[in-house]
Amino acid sequence: xxxxxxxxxxxxxxxxxxxxxxxxxxxxxxxxxxxxxxxxxxxxxxxxxxxxxxxxxxxxxxxxxxxxxxxxxxxxxxxxxxxxxxxxxxxxxxxxxxxxxxxxxxxxxxxxxxxxxxxxxxxxxxxxxxxxxxxxxxxxxxxxxxxxxxxxxxxxxxxxxxxxxxxxxxxxxxxxxxxxxxxxxxxxxxxxxxxxxxxxxxxxxxxxxxxxxxxxxxxxxxxxxxxxxxxxxxxxxxxxxxxxxxxxxxxxxxxxxxxxxxxxxxxxxxxxxxxxxxxxxxxxxxxxxxxxxxxxxxxxxxxxxxxxxxxxxxxxxxxxxxxxxxxxxxxxxxxxxxxxxxxxxxxxxxxxxxxxxxxxxxxxxxxxxxxxxxxxxxxxxxxxxxxxxxxxxxxxxxxxxxxxxxxxxxxxxxxxxxxxxxxxxxxxxxxxxxxxxxxxxxxxxxxxxxxxxxxxxxxxxxxxxxxxxxxxxxxxxxxxxxxxxxxxxxxxxxxxxxx
Length: 499
Ligand code: NAD
Ligand code: MN
What we know:
Number of domains: 2
Bound molecules: nicotinamide-adenine-dinucleotide, manganese (II) ion
Number of helices: 16
Helix content: 25-40%
Number of strands: 20
Strand order of the largest sheet: 14-15-16-13-12-17-18
Organism: Cupriavidus yeoncheonensis
Active site: 272
Strand content: 15-25%
Shape: globular
Radius of gyration: 24 Å
CATH architecture of the largest domain: 3-Layer(aba) Sandwich
Distance between the termini: 71 Å
Protein name: Phenylacetaldehyde dehydrogenase
GO molecular function: phenylacetaldehyde dehydrogenase (NAD+) activity
CATH topology of the largest domain: Aldehyde Dehydrogenase, Chain A, domain 1
Pfam families: Aldedh
Structural class: alpha/beta
CATH class of the largest domain: Alpha Beta
């Protein structure tokens, strides 16, 4: 490792130096065949740790452990209030180890540690607490049935919401700890057991979270964590016949594969996939306010956000002034390693991701877009990419149609609002959108016409535990967060008793 380890707290340093094992049935284990892979610090391209590369045999062990824990033993016997208390304890432990977790996240993913503290770690603790509350508040219904066929009997009928069973959770690298919490929270609140597979780029915070799961007192097998790549470990989990439900967050391309594998056995499946979210500025926004909003929508987390506002629709009259103000903000963001306190934007997560983003920007310029600012930072080391503004790309070009997943926004002028609705809805995605204006009636007329799971007004990228989150169209299937998430982690059982 390099000099910046002096910025690490002793706990983070100790964790990084220790051996990395997977969590299966309450045991810390290497892969059955001894295979390993490495994870790097994307700011320095140095190796952080060697991690077990799980194969199908390890995934099978983890699923069997989760099955056993679900069907029998202490977890099966726990009451809702026991599950609530355990989740609260886990949230407290995340909070008690917040600085260590934030530093691990900043190092493994590259994001600024200030963001890791405020968003990833505080968000994970808050979400686990919110879900703890639901453990005791889920319920079925009492039904007043008629049963016209049998008039001589009376009936008592009700529904039960029962835990769906073993959950296979596959998560991406952009918010590693928070995505782990988004999967564990609802599963553990309602009594499921879990096999969690973090992304191969960022396996470390999930492994530390696994230690906290044990410390909190969860019985063996309730939470299992398998580290490995998508093709072997992820695919083995998605296709495992004894997994009852798959919860996936990642690309639309892989989401279709994972969803298809789940559908082969009619396993329950939720998919949180890509986006190409439009940011629509109405003509009452000043160029400065529009630029500030647009910057927040696209540059947060290096643009590696599924809801990133990557298409910016601006009224033609103020287009040039707004684009210039946005470029000024972009040029003022200080690129640096996530661990350094004054870093405004960290590196992208990997060389592959930087090449992908650079390829899109080049394709955009070749398609006729103007590069207003940004591009590859071309630093001697680290996967740094400058905050980038493209203007005037053709609506059909890849930079307007496809998810780039980097700090790249395409600014596009419009002449009337009717036209912009069609263009905003004109991609295969439908995850999120934002509308910016203080003209209440125009805003309210726009909101129902936008095909997206979340529509923000005068803000972007803000989530709340109580707000359902998910996509229309090819941005996914199902909803996470809020009460709505339990539609996908429970089965409804109808019970009829003739009395
Ligand atoms: P990905 O979809 O390949 O990876 C997400 C997760 O799926 C990882 O844990 C990965 O190991 C796993 N996975 C990969 N192939 C699998 C398979 N065949 N079966 C089961 N699991 C599998 O995403 P990526 O390759 O890391 O990134 C590629 C692009 O995906 C990005 O450029 C971005 O556009 C998009 N992406 C979107 C999100 C999001 O939150 N919407 C997150 C990450 C990446
Ligand atoms: Mn890493």
